[in-house]
User: Which sequence fits this backbone?
């Protein structure tokens, strides 16, 4: 279908819709049923069966199964069946964990799925893009990604970047006129917008004409199946480390087997023991457990309003040393209220709070009637006309639909009795040049009833001053001399030093029918009218969050398009700007190279009047200084800086699709405090991963050493294969998982950020693994030797004692793993998952030891009460022997910047 050839009314008829009402509920359900969701087909996810089978692809597990088969053939049925049962159980456990991790990561993807604004049943709604059907009317603006193929019906300076489809990266200006041509390429269909392309400027509306696989993108979708690698640096490091650990475990196991055989053990016996040991001791599952821990952490982050879009960011978050945060909406509430106005040397104040329409105007203490003061009336009227926001009533409260800055101007106007709807009856808007944060201005061209036309511009006062030629002063238009200019500058500074955000309004008459081609032509030689100053209160929770970041060695930098003095005042209120801290504005920044900025960047806390491209410079300078930078953004132009930052953060509410797609973290509530919470969580996740690495590896070291030492000492096997496998499944598995759910230590935000190149075994982890593992091996062997020495005829009993000691030693050690410092620093009952995991492991161990039907399977004998003293005493040694010495030594200090 050549939609571009038709007029919009023809398209409307063809797809059976209504441009002013949208589709009805009934129609939508019918179309969704008929044509399905507006989605591109995804590559299939691995099936459950495949995922389950993957649990057994490990080489040693295959060897173990083969060995078990042989022992089964040799008549050792009980052993064979028990081993297979344990391997299967292990497989199920791994399968369920991975399945859950995969599901939660998939759900995450759904959460960050794009949304569109659609007209349905006469109302504009936000819906998920996949819900779109042919005939839907959608609207979009700069920064949005187009959700389906549409025939445009309205455009305002609309430009769309279609490189995803055509390869052409220069944005295409769009219009709505039909194009009569038989064969034109997608790139030339200027009255169409296609799924997956990006609005870079202006805004528009259109009718959906194709969805899902029927779109132009759908036709090439197969080519686009880009599988983004989601593996994190730690996972990669662990994979490499895993290879080394496997080799070490294999060598040691081999040693156990060889020494065992030399000491006269049977080949078959040693073979099965060796293979079981290898299966138990090889930490092949580490990367998988890390994935599980990451996905659990990611879920916790969602509950705190932070959505992770790229898994590696979870780790990087823990290394962040600088947060560069936007001001408006992130540090402040983005709930603006005009409180002061300035024009022609006079200042007025306005009463009222928030978007409440009650309020009056005052000159000093005296209330004034706005219509009596011509410039004030003009300042407010033009503020309302050069505007795209509207006010909506919701549950007895007014809310702003659109930009809050513009909303504040509407509310100020209404306090003076100026209604936008009524004003639009007098003035017709015939052209608009939308606001962008690089120009810091917006303009409209209006025409009144007598055919007079003029440009109205509003924007940052200092910028407007530069493009004004005259000024309204005492109701007269005066040439804007340096003297008048200074009055204006003083007024800006005065308003800004009260932390007010300032917007100036200017205008210029133009000839009837004069065609203004672009914003450059519109926004020059203006007549400056005055300034409106609005408060934007800081978010109440931010000050404490900034302080917590400081304690954690993380510097907060404010980056804003606002005036330097406004920014400074708010930064000081929030504790971002210390005394002596530098502030820098966009002008100065423009003149600097990255190298120059690098010189001073450590001292700068506020960047004001910046344009989005400055953000990239700031990120680069900070990175050159060795910082790990978190950078927030919301607009299209912020995307490069968000991408370049180590942690790109996009706003969930005000952020554009483009910014979100470039980011690795999305803040659902746009709140700075959420960044802090995410960093906290990021650090915690990393610490939890370290905790279970320590636990698992120390356990493995213990298991190998007890066997190795016994062989070297010419002792019988202290543990039988099934016991080793049992320890691996029950004792290692459950508590390790519970460690992944552990709470942060109280000092996690009181120390400096982690170095990104820090190795897995840094901060004494390696030492702890080896020393604790060694001691676990020694005490197990000691228990075995004592009991075996007492009665060498009862080997089974001594093995049961060794089994119980090994299990208990590990289960006590797990509580020590919770702290970087020592076991005494943490309340064991804080993590009830762990307490229950340990209790269940103990109960299961007791069942295996005391339940007669299981005794022959696990080669166990009921332990006498007095021997429990020995077991408990010895198993506490590995944890408490070294914990005491560390207690006095460790006092971690935050590494400050
Ligand atoms: P940030 O969110 O990065 O803290 P910001 O939102 O204050 O910054 P911009 O939106 O780029 O930054 O605004 C910069 C300046 O442009 C403001 O100080 C204001 O003077 C002016 N401005 C903001 N919004 C508008 C608008 N809708 N129309 C005209 N001028 C505007």
Assistant:
């Amino acid at each position: 279908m050549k939609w571009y050839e038709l007029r919009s009314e023809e398209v409307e008829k063809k797809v059976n819709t209504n441009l002013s009402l949208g589709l009805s509920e009934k129609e939508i359900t019918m179309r969704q049923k008929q044509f399905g969701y507006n989605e591109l087909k995804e590559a299939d996810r691995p099936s459950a069966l495949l995922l389950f089978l993957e649990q057994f692809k490990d080489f040693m597990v295959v060897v173990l199964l083969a060995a078990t088969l042989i022992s089964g053939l040799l008549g050792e049925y009980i052993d064979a069946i028990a081993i297979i049962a344990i391997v299967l159980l292990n497989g199920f456990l791994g399968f369920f964990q991975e399945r859950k991790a995969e599901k939660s990561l998939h759900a995450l993807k759904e959460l960050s799925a794009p949304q569109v604004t659609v007209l349905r049943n006469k109302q504009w709604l936000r819906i998920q893009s996949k819900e779109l059907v042919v005939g839907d009317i959608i609207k979009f603006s700069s920064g949005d990604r187009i959700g389906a193929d549409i025939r445009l019906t309205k455009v305002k300076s609309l430009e769309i970047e279609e490189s995803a489809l055509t390869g052409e990266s220069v944005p295409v200006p769009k219009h709505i006129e039909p194009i009569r041509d038989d064969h034109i390429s997608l790139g030339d269909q200027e009255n169409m917008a296609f799924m997956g392309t990006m609005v870079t400027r202006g805004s528009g509306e259109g009718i959906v004409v194709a969805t899902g696989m029927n779109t132009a993108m759908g036709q090439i979708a197969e080519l686009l199946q880009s599988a983004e690698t989601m593996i994190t640096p730690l996972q990669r490091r662990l994979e490499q480390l895993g290879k080394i650990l496997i080799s070490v475990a294999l060598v040691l196991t081999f040693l156990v087997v060889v020494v065992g055989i030399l000491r006269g053990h049977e080949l078959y016996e040693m073979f099965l023991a060796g293979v079981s040991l290898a299966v138990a001791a090889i930490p092949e599952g580490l990367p998988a457990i890390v994935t599980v821990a990451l996905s659990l952490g990611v879920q916790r982050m969602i509950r705190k309003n932070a959505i992770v879009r790229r898994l590696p960011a979870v780790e990087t978050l823990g290394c962040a040393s600088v947060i560069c945060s936007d001001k408006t909406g992130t540090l402040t509430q983005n709930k603006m209220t005009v409180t002061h106005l300035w024009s022609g040397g006079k200042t007025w104040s306005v009463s009222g709070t928030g978007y409440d329409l009650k309020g009056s105007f005052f000159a000093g203490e005296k209330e004034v009637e706005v219509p009596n003061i011509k410039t004030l009336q003009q300042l407010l009227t033009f503020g309302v006309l050069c505007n795209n926001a509207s006010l909506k009533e919701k549950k007895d409260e007014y809310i702003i639909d659109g930009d809050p800055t513009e909303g504040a101007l509407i509310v100020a106007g209404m306090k003076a009795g100026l209604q936008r709807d009524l004003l639009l009856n007098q003035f017709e808007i015939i052209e608009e040049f939308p606001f962008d944060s690089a120009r810091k201005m917006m303009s409209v061209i209006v025409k009144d009833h007598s055919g007079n036309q003029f440009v109205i511009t509003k924007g940052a006062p200092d910028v407007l001053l530069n493009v004004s030629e005259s000024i309204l002063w005492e109701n007269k238009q005066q040439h804007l001399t340096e003297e008048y200019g200074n009055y204006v500058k003083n007024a800006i500074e005065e308003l800004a030093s009260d932390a007010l955000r300032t917007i100036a309004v200017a205008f210029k008459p133009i000839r009837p029918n004069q065609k203004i081609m672009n914003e450059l032509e519109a926004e020059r030689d203006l007549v400056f009218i005055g300034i409106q100053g609005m408060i934007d209160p800081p978010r109440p929770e931010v000050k404490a969050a900034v302080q917590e970041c400081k304690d954690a060695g993380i510097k907060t930098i404010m980056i804003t398009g606002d005036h330097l003095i406004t920014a400074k005042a708010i930064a000081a209120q929030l504790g971002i700007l210390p005394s002596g801290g530098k502030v820098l504005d966009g002008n100065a920044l423009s003149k600097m190279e990255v190298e120059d900025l690098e010189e001073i960047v450590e001292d700068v806390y506020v960047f004001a009047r910046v344009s989005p491209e400055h953000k990239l410079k700031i990120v680069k300078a900070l990175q050159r200084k060795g910082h790990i930078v978190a950078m927030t953004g919301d607009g299209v132009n912020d995307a490069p800086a968000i991408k370049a930052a180590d942690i790109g953060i996009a706003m969930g509410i005000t952020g554009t699709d483009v910014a979100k797609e470039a980011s690795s973290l999305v803040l659902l509530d746009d709140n700075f405090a959420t960044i802090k919470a995410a960093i906290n969580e990021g650090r915690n996740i990393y610490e939890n991963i370290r905790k279970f690495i320590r636990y698992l590896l120390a356990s493995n070291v213990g298991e190998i050493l007890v066997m190795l030492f016994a062989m070297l000492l010419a002792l019988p096997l202290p543990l039988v294969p099934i016991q080793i496998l049992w320890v691996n499944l029950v004792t290692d598995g459950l508590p390790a998982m519970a460690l992944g759910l552990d709470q942060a230590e109280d000092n996690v935000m009181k120390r400096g950020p982690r170095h990104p190149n820090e190795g897995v075994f840094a901060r004494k982890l390696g030492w702890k693994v080896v020393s604790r593992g060694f001691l676990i091996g020694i005490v197990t062997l000691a228990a075995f030797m004592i009991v075996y020495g007492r009665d060498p005829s009862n080997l089974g009993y001594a093995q049961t004692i060794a089994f119980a000691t090994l299990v208990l030693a590990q289960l006590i050690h797990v509580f020590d793993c919770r702290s970087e410092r020592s076991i005494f620093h943490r309340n064991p009952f804080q993590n009830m998952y762990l307490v229950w995991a340990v209790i269940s492991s103990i109960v299961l161990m007791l069942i295996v030891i005391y339940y007669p039907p299981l005794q022959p399977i696990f080669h166990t004998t009921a332990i006498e009460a007095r021997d429990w003293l020995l077991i408990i005493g010895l198993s506490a040694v590995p944890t408490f022997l070294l914990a005491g010495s560390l207690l006095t030594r460790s006092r971690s200090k935050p590494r400050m910047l």
Notes: The domain at 233-300+679-889 is CATH 1.20.1110.10 (Calcium-transporting ATPase, transmembrane domain). The two ends are 62 Å apart (CA to CA). Confidence is low (pLDDT under 50) at residues 223-229, 886-897.
